[in-house]
Structure formats: C-alpha cells, structure tokens
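Pilot study result, target chain (282 residues):
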Amino acid sequence: MTSSGFTAVGEQVGQFYDQLMGAFDASLYGPNIHVGFWNSQEDATGLEDAANRLTDMMIERLQVGPGDRVLDIGCGLGGPAIRLAQATGAEVVGISVSRKQVEKANELAEAAGVSGKVSFQHGDAMNLPFDDASFSAVWMLESVMQMPDRTAALTEAARVLRPGGRLALTDNYEREPISEERRPVIEGILKRYLTQSPASFEAYPAMLREAGLRCAELIDVSENTTRQSVKRLGEALAKNMEQLAAKVDPEVFAKLKPAEGENLEMPELGYLIVTARRPVSA
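Predicted structure:
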C-alpha cells in the first residue's frame, strides 16, 4: 500500500483514466466504459445501446430492488450505476481510482435526478473504505481485469457483501492457448491499457471459493461482446479519429492509437460473465 491507502497499481490506473477524460467526453459508448452485447453478427445495434444491453444483463444477475444497497467497484463514468438505480430502485455507491471519473459520475447522477440514490467516491478496490457485510450486492464491470490480484480483489468484495448477497462481474480469460510467438504481442497490448494477464476459465470457480464466494454462473459471451466490439469500435474510431485526437492529451493519444498495421483483435482472449454469491453460512 502507498501512504494514501491505495496500491501503486491503483494510483497508476487512476492517473491513466484521469488523462483519458477527454476521450470519455467524446465516448462512442455514451456514459459507459465497457463493451457492448450484440445478439448476432447481423444485429445493427449501435455502440451505446449495445453497452446498455450488457449493463441490463448484469442488472438482472444482481437480483436487487428498493431497500438494497449495491457497490459498483470501478464505476467509470457512472452510467451503469445510474441505470441500475433507475431500473431497480436500489441505492448504489460507486468507487473509482480516478478522481476525474468520480467528479464526472456525480455530475451525471445529479443531471439524471438520482443523486439521492446514487453517489460516487474515490476509492481503491484492494482496500475498500466500507464496513464488513454492508452491501446487498456488488458488481465489477470490466474492472477486476485491471486489479493487481484478482483473488485479493474478490476477497475484499466478499468482505463487504452481506451473507446471501450476490456478486456479478465481467472479465477476460484465455479462451485459446496463447502461442509463445503471440504472447508478447498480447501482453504488450494489455499492458498499454494497464490490463492484467487473462484469467483461466477452469480456475475461476476455485478462485471465487478462495475469496469466500460460490460460483453461480460462468458463461463465455465472447462472440456477442469483444469480437463485435473490436470490429465496430474500430470502424467508429476511424470516422471519429480527428475529434478524439483533439480531446485527448497528445502523449496519451500516441500511446493508445494503434500502430500502423497493428491488429487489436485477440482471438485467444474471451469475455466472461461471472455471477457468485456469498454463502449464508461458512
């Protein structure tokens, strides 16, 4: 831990997202920082609506309603948390390692008229500033993959989750064996976005058990999410590159912009939806 109580990785990720706020202002996903879900190759749904569809799928898995309190770990711009509160009537608390994301998310909650139900604060998933068993449900929407230790992050999530409460998350995993030739390429792309090495599908239930959780669902939705998102986002970025470049720090933009001829498609990586619960008794 650093003197602030944040991990070094948490502070690094927070700075990374602070620098990217200009890109989020020009976001093609709306107030979301996660991939979309498309029902088929022929599905013509736009990026923002597809991202909202994935959010709705995650909302269903939490099984919450009025009177429940939900923790959004890695809340981003707050779009999913606001949508969750509007759909269910639950109270939502979001945390992010990015101070600028927290500021923007609270502005969006105010604009949506849900600031009494939804709030956001600066916090690190590896050292949550909440009491034990203080939430009915927890979700981690494309955030656990940027944490330095998945099991430790899940253990913290389980700590603040009430017995019987549910956890829903999305994560990437090694869907196909990564060759020695391809591994440096893939690791290089992941490192650029401060993303950890992919998880293991087979090891996920055991990892959840070690964290004090029990796996309820583990499904691969790669064909409906990342495969589609990479293709469609690439097409949209090509049309909006000048607008994006004007809003992002040039140094950051240079790091994130794919090199000429670089292919960001990584068929070896898959995308998981994971649902778990904290047992009522040990």
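One observation from the pilot: The radius of gyration is 18 Å. A full batch analysis is planned for the follow-on phase.
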